[in-house]
Amino acid sequence: MEMDEFFEYKLNTHKDDLEGQKSLALFSEEEKALEWVHQWILIPATRAIDTLVIHIKNPDSRFAKILHDISVNFPDFIYWE
Prior knowledge:
Elements: H1 3-12, H2 29-45, H3 62-73
């Protein structure tokens, strides 16, 4: 429920695990944070056996827009209501 709020919560609470270590800076801080959040989102997204229903509180949220773009690209198995 309210997966968009979970997405924003995880994005806002991200901390770099390599704090204090040198990195090559190949990715921006935002890209690192998004990668981390995507890994968290995969946990509930991969638990469904047959059907996955995702509840979104704010249809204008960043996460909702990502999901809507995916649904446009895969209309044969994603139903957007």
